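Changelog excerpt

This revision adds worked examples to the README so contributors can see how folded entries look when concatenated. The first example is reproduced verbatim below.
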Amino acid sequence: MSHTDAILDRLMALHPKVIDLSLDRMHRLLGALGNPERSIPPVIHVAGTNGKGSTQAMIRAGLEAGGKRVHAYTSPHLARFHERIRLAGDLIPEADLAAVLEECEAANDGQPITFFEITTAAAFLAFSRVPADYTLLEVGLGGRLDATNVIDEPALTVITPISIDHTQYLGDTLPLIAGEKAGIIKRTVPCIVGPQQDEALRVIENRASGLAAPLFVHGQHWQIARDRDGMVYQDDFGLWDLPLPNLIGPHQIQNAGAALAALRHLNATDAQALAAVTQAEWPARMQRLRHGPLVDLAGPQAELWLDGGHNPAGGEALAATFETLPSRPTHLVCGMLNTKDIAGYLRPLAPFAETLTAIDIPGEPNTLPAAETAKAAESVGITTRTATDAASAIAAIIETAPQARILICGSLYLAGRILRENG
């Protein structure tokens, strides 16, 4: 166990609830640390249900192509906690991470605080000590009461598509969830709004109106559409004729639009717009695995893919992606958390899946048992079986379908485990 792993284990025990949305504990700890969040570079704050990470990755690629130094905060991590914190473009070094975690632990002095809150405070501390031009903050959950929502005057906010998810924390209707996401909107600060259902957009518009925050809304102020083998982005300032995003899937065109709208407001050049859609990297979002022991196990004729989507909107995005791929027998290996709408996620995938092999997520206390995942898959018409782990599932699929397209899916926690297993 590394030094930072030992610290992170201690921090996990500071609060009985993993998720407990509130800003009180965050303000207390930041005050004890000297309010480092007030000293970080200009913030671009990103909320939404789906597409936050991809949109942030494209904004970062565009800014960095213009020579900007960019901090970035995202969650959850996949293989290593260090992925959550980028300092001026690079993953935070082990020694720096250990130092800010220990400083936050000491300042907290054993008081109750969630793991996400104290590690977010550590990120702010790290960001305040390294010069940069911008700070990209991805909301962890919701927005209004998320630990990242302590920035009073961001440079820009971005709200990606909102759909039903995390109902136990955010509410069980789209307007309630949209109200939580719209909580990142700040007085007079411009907000980029991705494609939204009417119910969600009305909530966003009402919040922005009360705060005199200018909105730049998809379909009203900016548009993006596929055009042959590329795409065209257009707003009041002009047009960008660009290739398709290197991140795979039709939904990434919408994410690219939000990123490009943000970059436009940051005075990006044509070259930066091109870099945003061609140089962004974001693992476990319809990622083709090409090397490693799991790829070797699948064999040279098979395709092995990985995706961390986990809600109905994520299932719909995957289904739309399958529509664009060459026809090939497709088999799913799926593990999910017990807090998710399993059938809602799998229903859009049913027409494309010949089989689904259900597995537990290793080491995850909130994993849905494989048998229950299989039962949900059967309820939407998918032929199912179970396996003890991903490697066993892949081996069983390849026995009868050596040329299969295999997609491991259902959870970012599973995706992280797969990336570690695959080296």
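The second example, added in the same revision:
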Amino acid sequence: MLQADSDNKRPALLDKTITQPPRRTRFVDIVQGSVKLAMNAGFLGKPDLDVDAMKARAAKKAGSADFGDPWFERPLKALVKAVESEAQLHETGAHIAVQQCEKVLVDRLWAQQWFAQHPEILSRPLRNPVFVVGPMRSGTTRLHRLLAADKRFNHVRGFETISPVPRPGFSHGARDGRIALAKRIRRVARLANPATLSIHPTGPMQPEEELGLLVNSFWGMKHEAQWFIPSYGRWCEGEDAEPVYRHMADLLRLVGWSQQASSLRPWVLKTPQHMLDLSALLKVFPDARFVFTHRDPLRVVASSASLAWNQTCIYSDHADASKVGSEWLRKTRLQVDSMQAARKHIAPDRMIDIDYEDVDTDWRNAMRRIYTFLDLDIDRAWPAMEAFARRAERLKRHPHRYSLAEFGLSEDQVLAGMGSYGRRYEEKARQRVTES
């Protein structure tokens, strides 16, 4: 039962005992110290984020210079400019930034090689995909994984969002080195900051959002959650994302081909970035169906800021929690406003709204509503969904704890910043308290 705040009769939703953001682990400081010593001693060179130099190194590794649609260079240049001028990365963080950018460039080169070798990949249909769309931390992951448990849907797995493009020499049924890479990255992430895996539990073979397919165009909020680069975010917000989604669709075809997944099954997809890009998404996926998720903005903003902070502080010695909080309040409002504007162009029979609180109270009933909307028999899906729910319940032993205060925000500030969306949720929360 929700408890009313004694000062303003508003339901208490957050852990108000948390007033300072968490520190990164000692492991990060040890690695950073070692990298700094190696650079000072001349054993390790200065990280080079020059776009042409990174492209040249990637081309040498991949043995090709065909990156596909050159449009990607525009977001890449905006990203590099913001990283160099705003992110204040320490030496290790800068080296990791170079490695990440070059990995994406190599993946783009390999993708073009696969498309040339197997032109049938690009003819694979993407019929009636289902997109779970909502603000960060609004329950999209839970609904996405419940749907992905149903074998009637295709989905992207964790290792495929890290590395959506198979390596040269890949063959169906053979050992896939991308899985081992994903396991190593997960181990390092746990050492760098175990909280990140409590905030978003994942694994190489788990259903995962297609964020990496957007990153392959150097696009999206993944970068903003990793580094404090507000100018890059604003640059993306002013651009048409259609080239990004066309490339994402081709990568989805490649993922399906590498899985040997049936192209007759619809994909179930999700990432909060879609809230900002619905107009582009609709052009590329005109028969898409949408499950829109909603959650109290007090929790959404605080949880989003916490997710971003727990990554940003790994890569920079100068991460500022208040700046992170302010930026994610702005970003959350923009996501909601963009979603509301785009929904006017979606037929009512192609979308359904699901509240986080309703899923928390009775996820089975929420799934029944979704399956009725999708015109699917849910009985076949129950065993797999129940198994996922039991696994997810075990993870609650390490809940994600956060507050607004640790990011310099107040409830009044967030509700005012979220406009009508905030006011609507405040009223719903008061109503729940009254009814309880």
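Reviewer comment on example two: The first strand starts at residue 130 and ends at 133. The chain is about 55% helix and 5% strand.
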